[in-house]
Structure formats: structure tokens, C-alpha cells
Amino acid sequence: xxxxxxxxxxxxxxxxxSQSTLDMVVGGHLGCRGLSSFGMAQSLELGEFLSSKFxxxxxxxxxxxxxxxxxxxxxxxxxxxxxxxxxxxxxxEIDPGEDDGKAWANLSLVEVKIDSAIGPGGESIVQMYDxxxxxxxxxxxxxxxxxxxxxxxxREGPTFVFTHRGPISSAYAICKxxxxxxxxxxxxxxxxxxxxxxxxxxxEGARTPRLSSFLGASIQEIYPVHAR
Length: 228
Prior knowledge:
Blueprint: E1 7-14, H1 19-22, H2 37-53, E2 62-64, H3 68-78, E3 86-87, H4 125-150, E4 159-163, H5 165-176, E5 192-199, E6 218-224
Parallel strand pairs: 1-4, 2-3, 2-4
Antiparallel strand pairs: 1-5, 5-6
GO molecular function: fructose-2,6-bisphosphate 2-phosphatase activity
Pfam families: His_Phos_1
InterPro entries: His_Pase_superF_clade-1, His_PPase_superfam, Phosphoglycerate_Mutase
């Protein structure tokens, strides 16, 4: 897949099915139990799709959240050594605080509010949204600088971003300008691929690399894995 000249592309990929979901426990940094056997199979299927669509995948930049299930997905899908994967906390799912690793049945949370922590010592939806906004903006700015340094006629491959439902929902809301209150309306499939295109001209010269400050952004789901 070849992007239009003048655009920067991030390929946002939701991880495969997680073992903590099957075990019904909160899968933060501590509670994540990696991919389930089906999640591993999904990741390999993702790899077949990505290699068929992106000729530069073997030499592209690969980043992931610092939670195990995303780095496992990246490793299986792209077939690279885990040490090559850049781990960014800005791409992590919302921080559940003290509820990390607890069984769903034992959660302290009763009602979700966008500006309140989802668990004791955890993060609010607003805080996650702002964190993702900044992290994706920085990735786009770095990609733009690399492309500019390579010359106007260069074609840079996309950056592959392995992340979670919350960050991808945030990216949709940021690009559409609908704000944090719309996050719940976006259904992000497990093991799905999303293409985020941003006009490079709107990145260059930006004083703060926040995705919400960019113009000409669009995002679309291009490959959901539905069936077992």
C-alpha cells in the first residue's frame, strides 16, 4: 500500500486476544498475561495481511505500548526481535491503578466518568486521551522530520503502532474533532488495522506536536479480524 505524497502515515494496530480477558482480570502492566493462543493466531494472520500490503514492513519503524500483549502481537506479526520494538508508555491502555490484576468481579469501580480515575490511583479517560494525543503527535512529527531530511521526493514507509482499543478510539475522536466524550462510540475490533493519514504540511512548523493541532487528518479501519 502506497500513501499519497505529502502525507505521513501511522498504521495503528490493536493487539490480538489477550489471556487476561479470557481469565476476566484487569490487564494493566501487572495484570497482563500476554496473548491467548487465539491471539497468537490472530497476530500471525495480521502479519500475512501487513506483509501483503506494505512492501516496507521489514525496514519500517515499529513501536508498541509497554504492555506485554502489544509487544507480543508486534513480534509475531512482523517477525522481528523484541529488542527492536520501541516501547512507549504513551500508547498504553488506560491505567487502572490499584485495580490492575484484579478479577473483574472484584473491581472497586461502580460508575465510569470521563474526568475521574477508573480505579484508585489510576488514570481518567481525559488523561488517557491527552496522553495519546501527545504521543501520536510526537510520532507524526518525528516521521515528518525524517521524511524532510530524506528529501522532497523520498517516500517514507509508515510507522507501525501496536496499541489498544482506548488509544485507537482516542485517535478517531481526535481526528474527527469530536472530543473525549465520543470515545465510547468507536468499536475497535481485536486484532484490527487502522490507517492514520496526516498532511505533512500541517505538521511542519507546529509549535507543539499535538495531534489535535494538525489539519487534514483522516483515519479508517482497513482490516478487522472477526472470526475464530
